[in-house]
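Let's inspect one such protein example.
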Amino acid sequence: MKHDRLDNQVQETAALYALGALSQQEARAFDLHLKEGCEICSAELTEFEEVASYLGTAAQSVSPPAYLGDLLTVRIEKEAARLRSVKGSVITFPEKARAVRQLIGRVPLGKTLPWAAAAILLVALAYAFISWRSERQSMLAILDQERTQRYKSTDENANLKEELTQEKELSTELGQINAVLSTPQSRIISLAGQVPAPEATGKIYWAVRGHRWVVSANLPPAPQGKIYQLWFVTSAAKVSAGLIKPDKSGHGFAVLNFPPNLYGVRKTAITLEPDGGSEQPTSAIYALGDVS
């Protein structure tokens, strides 16, 4: 079965395989697993084989302590005594025995022990490398968690900032509406949704003496590159009153001037126009209200 992620078991098996420290059965099973095409195990093995090859050549020759030679001599003498004690029951081969003793005599202890030390160092470094990789993965997991928490905090701060902005805009809108309603002459024009947006609603608060319209409308969110435009509609023309830019929810608020020399306004309409507005309506009416 191929692995879908790297874990401690994969690292340990790959490291021991690279060192030749697995049993024959374990090594054979790992070989079969590699032939199945497990990319994770293959990549780990490649890394450990590179480490093993480097450490094997990087081991420096060191002189062994003198007591190790004494221990080896005692061990050889002890084994020789044991063999002599069982000489009657064992067929000896003098030629081979002499060859073994000569071989032992020719093997430089100073060259054998550095390689043994290098092998021990290699095993230790392999396990250290596995531990380092594990700690590194744990650290990366912690960093990812902290990064996620930071992004979450950033999103929360952005949401809070947006809410505060909306509350500020709502406060400004209510202040403008109250200012109109407190004037001696004021009117309220209701807007009703039309075919493109039957659920659209809105009100225009008209300060007659101040020649000011405060528009509060709920419309579908404007597509990118589009904006809503309010029109004064007379029997002869449609005159632009200004632009209404809704927020993400489609709520639009604007304070517009009512031309004092404009007469005969019977209706007011809202259409969806390109950014910047149009000289004349280019779309169907989204909301309509009676002025007269």
User: Anything to note?
Assistant: Residues 83 and 90 are 9 Å apart (CA to CA). Confidence is low (pLDDT under 50) at residues 89-97.
